[in-house]
UniProtKB/TrEMBL annotation:
InterPro entries: AspA/AstE_fam (IPR050178), AstE_AspA_cat (IPR055438). Gene3D superfamilies: Zn peptidases. Keywords: Hydrolase, Metal-binding, Zinc. Transmembrane segments: none annotated. It comes from the Bacteria. The lineage of its organism: Bacteria, Pseudomonadati, Bacteroidota, Cytophagia, Cytophagales. It comes from Mangrovivirga halotolerans. It holds the Pfam family AstE_AspA_cat. This is Succinylglutamate desuccinylase/aspartoacylase family protein. Its cofactor is Zn(2+). Signal peptide: none annotated. Residues 28-147 form the Succinylglutamate desuccinylase/Aspartoacylase catalytic domain. Coiled coil: none annotated.
C-alpha cells in the first residue's frame, strides 16, 4: 500500500496492487487498466481510482468486469521512474520464466513488483471468461497531446481507431520487454494510452476520458451512463492529428543517460528537418536522419530511449495491409528468395538481407510482421497476427 498526492489538487489516495475491481451485473468482457508502471507517472492511477469510485458511487450498471492494477508501487511512492530495473522492460518470456527462481535470490524491488502484477493478471485470465482487454496508462517527459501506442495487429488497430487521438504503430520493434507486448503475445487486445506530460494537470482528465470511452467501445458501459460526448470531445480537441496514424522508423538509444542531453523545447509530433541538431550525447551532436516528426524526446534522468522519429502512414497502405492479412498472404512468403520460416510454429520469418535485397522491412510490416532481431545480414520477422485470439473477439462489435 502506498499513499499518493496529486501535485495539482493536493488530493491524497491510498492504493495497493489492486486499485479496484468492479463486477458487472451482466456477463461480458473483462477490461484491465494498469497505471504507474513507471513510478513518476501517477496520473493513470488517480484516473483509475476516480472512475472506479464514480461507477460504484453512482451505481452505474456494468456489463462484465473491470480491474485496475497499480504498477511500480515503491517507485510511485518515491516519484521515481524505477529503482533498479525499468518495470516496463522486464516482460520477455525469458525474464518471466526466471521470476520464480529470482524470488529466492534477494531480487530487486522492481522484480518483486513484476511478479505481483503477473500473479494478478494470471488470476484474472484464469478466473474470467473474457474476451479480455488490457490498457496501460502513461505520461511523457516532454510536452505532448494524448496518443495511443499500438502493436500492429488488426484487432488492436480496429479498437484503437475508435478513439479520437493519433495512433503510433511499431514501437514494439524498438523496445524489449514492454508489458503490453507480453499481453499481445498471449493473443489479447492491448495497447497504451499516453495522457499528456508528467507535469500537465490535464493528464488525469485525459486518462479518465480514455477509460470511460474504452468501456463504452467494448459494450461494458452505455453512453447514457455518463456524458459520453463531453469526454469524446475532450480528447478530440487535444490534437489536429486526432485520427492520423504514424509509424516509428528510428530510435536513438542511450546507453549512459548522464551523457545524453536533449535540446530544450521539442514536443511530441513536432516536424523536424534532416540535419537539425536534436540532442548531444557524450559531447557529439545528434542530428535528424531525415525529414520526420520527433516522438517522445527524453527530458528526464532515467530511461534509454533518447528519442524516436515517426512518419505518417497513408490510409491506402492501411487498407491494403488489412486486405493482404485477411487473405493470409504470409503463407507464401517463404517461396521468396532469401526468406524462410524460422520455426515450426510458422510465426517468424528469417530474412537474409544479402539475398532478399528488395524486401524492405516496410513490406513485411504491411503483412503484420515486426523485426525482433536485426543485424548486418539477417533479421527475424515475427507475425503479430498469428497470436491474436480472433475467435474471442468475433462477436464483439468493433471486430466485425
Amino acid at each position: 500500500m502506498v499513499e499518493l498526492i496529486d501535485q495539482f489538487s493536493g488530493h491524497k489516495i491510498k492504493v495497493g496492487r489492486l486499485i479496484g475491481k468492479i463486477e458487472g451485473s451482466k456477463h461480458g468482457p473483462s477490461m484491465i487498466f494498469t497505471g504507474g508502471i513507471h513510478g513518476n507517472e501517477p496520473s493513470g492511477v488517480f484516473a483509475i481510482k476516480e472512475v472506479f469510485d464514480e461507477i460504484s458511487n453512482s451505481k452505474i450498471k456494468v456489463r462484465g468486469n473491470i480491474y485496475g492494477i497499480s504498477g511500480n508501487l515503491r517507485a510511485l511512492g518515491k516519484g521515481l521512474r524505477y529503482e533498479k530495473y525499468d518495470l516496463n522492460r522486464l516482460w520477455t518470456r525469458e525474464k518471466i520464466n526466471n521470476l520464480l527462481n529470482e524470488a529466492g535470490n534477494n531480487p530487486a524491488q522492481d522484480i518483486i513488483e513484476q511478479k505481483e502484477i503477473l500473479v494478478e493478471i494470471r488470476k484474472i485470465l484464469n478466473e474470467d471468461e473474457g474476451p479480455f482487454y488490457f490498457f496501460d496508462l502513461h505520461t511523457t517527459s516532454s510536452e505532448t497531446n494524448p496518443f495511443l501506442t499500438v502493436n500492429d495487429c488488426l484487432a488492436n488497430r480496429k479498437f484503437a481507431e475508435l478513439f479520437p487521438v493519433p495512433m503510433i504503430l511499431g514501437i514494439e520493434e524498438y523496445l524489449e520487454g514492454p508489458l503490453l507486448s507480453y499481453i499481445n503475445e498471449l493473443g489479447y487486445v492491448a495497447f497504451g494510452f499516453e495522457g499528456g506530460s508528467h507535469g500537465d494537470k490535464s493528464s488525469v482528465d485525459n486518462h479518465k476520458a480514455f477509460i470511460l470511452l474504452a468501456l463504452v467501445h467494448a459494450g461494458m458501459l452505455k453512453k447514457k451512463s455518463f456524458d459520453y460526448y463531453k469526454y469524446y470531445d475532450q480528447l478530440a480537441k487535444t490534437s489536429f492529428d486526432s485520427h492520423e496514424i504514424f509509424e516509428i522508423f528510428y530510435r536513438y538509444q542511450v546507453f549512459d543517460n548522464s551523457k545524453f542531453k536533449m535540446k530544450p523545447g521539442f514536443v511530441n509530433f513536432q516536424k523536424v528537418k534532416q540535419g537539425l541538431v536534436l540532442a548531444k550525447y557524450n559531447g557529439e551532436r545528434i542530428k535528424a536522419e531525415e525529414n520526420a516528426r520527433i516522438f517522445m524526446p527524453l527530458y528526464q534522468n532515467q530511461g534509454d530511449d533518447g528519442f524516436f522519429l515517426i512518419r505518417r502512414v497513408s490510409p491506402f497502405f492501411l487498407k491494403l495491409s488489412e486486405k493482404l492479412r485477411n487473405l493470409k498472404i504470409d503463407k507464401i512468403l517463404p517461396v521468396l528468395p532469401g526468406v524462410k520460416w524460422h520455426n515450426s510454429e510458422k510465426d517468424t520469418l528469417e530474412v537474409d538481407t544479402s539475398i532478399a535485397k528488395f524486401f524492405a522491412k516496410r513490406f513485411f510490416h504491411l503483412l503484420g510482421f515486426r523485426a525482433i532481431i536485426l543485424d548486418k545480414n539477417k533479421y527475424l520477422m515475427k507475425n503479430r497476427e498469428k497470436a491474436v485470439r480472433s475467435k474471442d473477439y468475433k462477436n464483439e462489435k468493433f471486430f466485425q
